[in-house]
Amino acid sequence: MSAVRPTKNVVVFDYGFGNVRSAERALARVGANVEITRDYDKAMDADGLLVPGVGAFSACMQGLKDARGDWIIGRRLSGGRPVMGICVGMQILFERGIEHGVETEGLDEWPGTVGPLKAPVVPHMGWNTVEAPADSQAFKGLDADARFYFVHSYAAHDWSLEVTNPAIRAPKVTWATHGERFVAAVENRALWATQFHPEKSGDAGAQLLTNWIETL
């Protein structure tokens, strides 16, 4: 994969939940200048902020708040500054999450609830295709049969955000199916997110990260 130029500065936000080293290597592979940190100023000043996430929704939210990540994400997005969430880093962008009967407030960037994935085999672990919109920027340059790596037991099953103002670009929602259909990725102006792990998805994941870097 050829490097992206000019070089963009990306912070992988280190709040204790996420494969930060894998994300760092994947972003460096596509030409970004990457730093792993929870420093407020560096996270605010970076061209792009990547928020990984693994584990429980509630624990990730608490870790994010402890590191002021909720404040940083909100401030960046209010100024149109790019943010990308991965796996649970995507789930916490929704209004709430329910795990083992426990309901936790998310960042509420999008309405909706993240809940248990209903499938014959859970967790959903392995490679899967996605259904991306034809005009998706995230999946630009990728074939329809491109496969991405998923590891999750919870998902957002519905998308209810409606945009009625024609001057505002509607979010592009990508879907995948494992037992049931669920949200696999979202492109919402400065905010992108994926349920799968692009940093573990080989060349397809590298192309998606390249596409994100090109928007910074």
UniProtKB/TrEMBL annotation:
Cellular localization per UniProt: Cytoplasm
Active site, per annotation: C87, H197, E199
Domain Glutamine amidotransferase residues, every copy: 11-211
Keyword Repressor in annotation: no
Pathway(s) this gene product operates in, as recorded in its UniProt entry: Amino-acid biosynthesis; L-histidine biosynthesis; L-histidine from 5-phospho-alpha-D-ribose 1-diphosphate: step 5/9
Recorded catalytic activity of this chain's protein: L-glutamine + H2O = L-glutamate + NH4(+); 5-[(5-phospho-1-deoxy-D-ribulos-1-ylimino)methylamino]-1-(5-phospho-beta-D-ribosyl)imidazole-4-carboxamide + L-glutamine = D-erythro-1-(imidazol-4-yl)glycerol 3-phosphate + 5-amino-1-(5-phospho-beta-D-ribosyl)imidazole-4-carboxamide + L-glutamate + H(+)
EC number: 4.3.2.10, 3.5.1.2
Highest taxon of source: Bacteria
Keyword annotations: Amino-acid biosynthesis, Cytoplasm, Glutamine amidotransferase, Histidine biosynthesis, Hydrolase, Lyase
Entry-linked Pfam families: GATase (PF00117)
Principal location: cytoplasm
CDD domains membership: GATase1_IGP_Synthase (cd01748)
SUPFAM superfamilies in the record: Class I glutamine amidotransferase-like
Purpose of the protein: IGPS catalyzes the conversion of PRFAR and glutamine to IGP, AICAR and glutamate. The HisH subunit catalyzes the hydrolysis of glutamine to glutamate and ammonia as part of the synthesis of IGP and AICAR. The resulting ammonia molecule is channeled to the active site of HisF.
Quaternary structure and partners: Heterodimer of HisH and HisF.
NCBIfam families assigned: IMP_synth_hisH
Protein's UniProt name: Imidazole glycerol phosphate synthase subunit HisH
Species this protein is from: Streptomyces nojiriensis
The organism's taxonomic lineage, starting at the top: Bacteria, Bacillati, Actinomycetota, Actinomycetes, Kitasatosporales
